[in-house]
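For consistency, the fold was encoded as tokens, as this record shows:
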Amino acid sequence: MEKFTTLTSLAAPLDRTNVDTDQIIPKQFLKRIERTGYGDFLFFDWRQTPDGKPVPDFVLNDARYKGAQILIAGKNFGCGSSREHAAWALSDYGFRVVIAPTFADIFFSNAGKNGIVLARLSESEIETLLQNAQNIPGYQLTVSLEAQTVTDNRGFRASFEIDPFRKFCLLEGLDDIGLTLRHAAALDQYEAQHDSAGWLKAK
């Protein structure tokens, strides 16, 4: 997992509330056995019409937000089923930060384990950011995980809370496997002792 310290990026405004995981990554794509490639299907039903044509006014189809790594959204983002694929799709598309007033609990956990910083700001702060991203060409935000702040170059500044353990993992780039491997030496020693004890018992 890539370490996260500070990111300055274009911000894409998704002015919708209750964005559920089936909208983030529709169920027909959950059959894939790979963990990559889900970015192509992020918000699939919103990005195109039933006959496969791009929806021109959807944010991800707007050239102004091409390359954005920060997504601004309404409250209760990531609600619905617990599919980890939603975090995979956001990450694979290129989003490293999602800013919203509230997030669904399971999605919040899944996102952190996949290197995505979720910043909870107040609804009034989110409204300001949405308006700025919609109306100011090339609008960028800076998200500092170390300082736990969201800022722009126009005077906006807000702080967000994050669990200290999750913050540590994101700063160090540690997913669950990485955390386990930090104890590789101790695990190897335990296995060696366990195998040795088993051999002695067998005698």
User: Anything to note?
Assistant: The mean pLDDT is 90.
